[in-house]
Design a protein that fits this description.
The protein is mainly alpha-helical and 180 residues long. The protein has helices at residues 9-16, 29-32, 38-51, 58-71, 75-87, 93-102, 106-118, 127-142, 150-163.
Length: 180
């Protein structure tokens, strides 16, 4: 077959043009920030995440939103993006990166998680289960030092009970001691 090259993806890109940003269905920082359109980016990113929270690009957009919000001093938006990464997209690459960076200081991560646990009344009904998944993922990625605080372990136990996930505690690594 002389014309097999016609079916090669590289040939199609050459003929029909390169992949465009329009094919990535999320607001990209590259399209907003160089032109100084920070507010527009923040609004469009939040709107996209409200409308399509289950989109496969949502974790990446959430991480971008977190970085832009932190860099521009939009603390409320940054906190909401961090919450989304840890409690909605906990199994994503982006959440893993956030957990390992926060997990380098177990006390800081524990403090953040305790603050979130205090919001349980205003959170979504499935928050206790999401909290437990986040803690389990954090312990698996950063080690058992996160659980060295008795108050934190008690809060985790209460939220696990509320989630009907008390058996989640049995899945903790063996190096975690629940005593003392």
């Amino acid at each position: 077959m002389k014309f097999r090259f016609l079916f090669h993806p590289a040939f199609a890109i050459l003929v029909f043009g390169k992949l465009s940003a329009a094919e990535v269905p999320i607001p990209l920082t590259e399209d907003y920030l160089p032109a100084g359109r920070v507010s527009a980016y923040l609004e469009d990113a939040q709107e996209f995440l409200r409308k399509k929270p289950k989109d496969s690009y949502a974790p990446r957009l959430t991480q971008d939103l977190l970085m832009v919000a932190k860099a521009t001093g939009k603390d409320k938006i940054a906190e909401e993006a961090r919450r989304s990464l840890l409690f909605r997209y906990v199994n994503s690459l982006q959440a893993g990166h956030l957990l390992t960076s926060l997990g380098s200081d177990p006390k800081a991560l524990r403090g953040f998680l305790l603050q979130e646990a205090d919001r349980v009344d205003e959170a979504e009904p499935d928050f206790p289960a999401r909290f437990c998944r986040c803690v389990l993922t954090a312990v698996r990625r950063t080690g058992p030092k996160l659980l060295e605080d008795n108050a934190f372990r008690l809060r985790l136990l209460l939220l696990a009970e509320a989630a009907g996930a008390h058996p989640v505690l049995a899945t903790m690594p063996r190096s975690v001691s629940w005593g003392s």
